[in-house]
Design goal:
This protein is of the alpha+beta class and 181 residues long. The protein contains three helices and nine strands. Helices cover 11% and strands 25% of the residues. It is globular.
């Protein structure tokens, strides 16, 4: 297979009221025939988003907006292209564009199309039907800023169990309290 797929670097710049540094990122392989809606889904999954019921939008270098028009119920900004039918063939090597997930918390990403095309078989070991991350770095913040299950932003952090991983069932050799019978 020729080197025909795009490699798109995606860096999380800010969100939930905070600028992030160093910026966590992922690199996503995508065919030029994939849609912006498919790219949005790949970005959201790669960044650990679990509540996907939020509006999102891409802003291209020429300020063109791309977003699922059905979500806007006729109120999309003028000139916005439908993310389900607009393909990544609009992107050029070296181009920068932005992706914002959750227009309330504004999880903003800088996306950069790599200058070189990739072969998905070499990078991923397969030719997937959707865009797919194949490299990444950094600590990903929780979508709502939660640090543990039940974090309400006011309750103190739970104390760590006294024997490290002693509270876990002894499925793995280093888990659980081996002194328990």
């Amino acid at each position: 297979m020729s080197r025909s797929w795009l490699s798109i670097r995606v860096e999380l710049v800010s969100g939930h009221g905070a600028d992030l540094w160093p910026r966590p990122g992922r690199v996503i392989a995508a065919a030029r025939t994939h849609s912006f809606a498919q790219l949005a889904e790949a970005i959201d999954l790669a960044f650990g988003r679990w509540d996907l019921a939020h509006l999102h939008t891409f802003t291209l270098a020429d300020q063109t907006g791309v977003s699922p028009l059905k979500w806007w119920e006729g109120e999309a900004p003028e000139g916005t292209l439908d993310g389900h039918s607009t393909t990544l063939s609009r992107l050029k090597a070296g181009e920068h564009f932005a992706y914002v997930f959750d227009l309330g918390d504004n999880w903003a990403h800088l996306c950069t199309v790599d200058d070189r095309r990739i072969d998905p078989l070499q990078e991923l070991g397969e030719k997937p039907s959707r865009p797919m991350p194949y490299w990444g770095w950094g600590t990903l913040p929780d979508q709502y800023g939660r640090r543990w299950d039940g974090d309400d932003g006011e309750t103190p952090m739970p104390k760590r169990p006294p024997r490290g991983l002693g509270d876990l069932p002894p499925i793995l050799p280093w888990w659980g309290d081996r002194r328990r019978g």
